[in-house]
Amino acid sequence: MCQPGNFTCGQETEITKRLEDSGADIHEINIVRKHLSLARGGYLAKYAYPARSLALIFVDIPDRDISYVASGPTIKDTTTVEDARRIIDKYRIDGTISPDDFIETPKDDIFFEKAAHLLFVSNSLGLGAMAAEANAIGYSFQLVTGSLTGNASQTGQHIVKTLAATDGKTALIYGGETTVIVKKPGKGGRNQELVLSALRFIREGQIIAAVNTDGRDNTDFAGALGDRQTLLKAHKLNLAPERFLVDNESYDFFEKTGDYIKTGPTGANVSDFIVALKE
Best exposed site among 40, 123, 148, 228 by fewest CB in 10 Å? Predict the structure, then answer.
């Protein structure tokens, strides 16, 4: 998936990690990866031509743009090397990539004439099941979006404040993928950080949960849940959510309170699921 002999998979992993830690979103990360690989960005379709091909796609991208799923190995890429370089400059990823490391993706239409694609699974199926269950147990549900993006900490705060403004027994349901700007060498993931941030504003009778559908929220935890009981446990353990949030230590916080969600690897990824409930 990389450039054997020139830019290794290990180097690509390092670039991806640095972009994630800097708060780059999934589209920006995939644009960079497309231009560091001899398999992504349409190269697999080029190699397969003139054979016919069919890609069955599990969508883990918030806006369901399949050209970014797995960095689009069988789909014609509309981005350029210059786009990738601008992202590297934007997040100041210095000293790891030289200008010669970037390669242009195939642009000739002929390579894609026999490449077909089927959106096989997306988060809409899971979100629909969540909405149906909420309705079955008596909640008035709002399927807010299947394309959630933005800073995890700010998003957690926003969801709880939105929940507080609703009436009666309500469920807010979201799918998507947020980002985290890593400032301290802590341990955690975007879903854990989202819930940890939301805890600062959670009220009695409210609960929020967020999980990565592949079972790994940048750690062996899939995500976390939080309510007033979580805060009571944190208080007894002398754990201040604000300090753990500043230090990017959401994993340690939820490990101590026991309010983590651990599923193990699920074998599939259709982005993240978030639900907030109000009694």
Answer: 228
